[in-house]
Amino acid sequence: MVRNHRITWTHQSVQDLFEKPFFDLISQAHEIHGKHFDPSRIELCALINIKTGGCPEDCGFCHQSAHFKTGLDREALMDVESVVQKAKKLKHLGVQRCCLGAAWRTPPKKDFPRVIEMIRHVKALGFETCVTLGFLDQQQANQLKDAGLDYYNHNIETSPEFYANVVSTHSFQDRLTTVQNVSRAKINVCCGGIVGLGESREDRINFLLALSQIKTPPKSIPINRMIRFDKTPLKDVEALDVFEFIRTIAVTRMMFPQSMVRLSGGRKELSESDQALCFYAGANSIFVGDKLLTAQNQSFDSDMFLMKRLNLEPVRPAYVTGETDVFSA
After folding, report:
1. Which of 41, 98, 114, 190 is an active site residue?
2. CATH of domain 2-314
3. Cα–Cα dist 243/14, whole Å
4. Of the listed 175, 204, 253, 262, which one is catalytic?
5. Domain ranges (residues) in the chain
6. pLDDT tens, position by position, 67-96
7. Among 59, 98, 191, 278, which one carries the catalytic annotation?
């Protein structure tokens, strides 16, 4: 048993949430969401892929793994000016958090100073900054903190029990160690996972329990719906039922009432109605932009059109208002 947000979560209590009647569950999640956030506001995040392909890890869902012949062209680490120019374009869209992602096991020593410089430049534009660079030791985490990094994304992906079915080149504990190093460095933790990897509901329960066992609960929790990339080992996994996905969003909101719950990868395959139910169930953050790393994403215009029809508004970033409009009760 673990204690999180003054609630003791057990396997049975999380299972009970998943087994609630669908509309009861999402209504309760919506009520909890409204106690901690303005449910009419959605945080806009964007991801800049600063280094593409050639990752030495064998994550079975990943288009960028060097283990699979996916046809993806490798690209070297971007130069700082190119990243800054991309970030400036995102600023015009009203993006609050700018995340930089690199396909590495761990940041190479020769490239790490350039990433540090990128963070400083992006932060100077007024963004909340986030990076996802693979595994970090404590020294690297401390250097990122000194650079002014706000968030580090490192997902645990799935349950400890199912993890070996997805990856063989590192362990579940390896991922937890990086999360611990980030937390010790006083960087906000962004940590979630992927559902629809072929795991059972039991695994989804254990995934969320594992998240709740992190000493400092993640302030951001990305929930990805697996994208089936051609030539990857998991490309033939049956797509997760959309209502089970929405249930997962709702249970996440109920277990982590004060965290941002981000509707992340796989959103392109969700209908407008599916997305609306996710927002109602407590998702209050999305990635915008035509691409999410190497995957297609919803267009910015279509996102804004949907939000307008749902009477939702983007959170106004600090560089516009001086403070964000997200609030926590």
Report:
1. 190
2. 3.20.20.70
3. 17
4. 262
5. 2-314
6. 998 888 888 999 999 999 999 999 999 999
7. 59
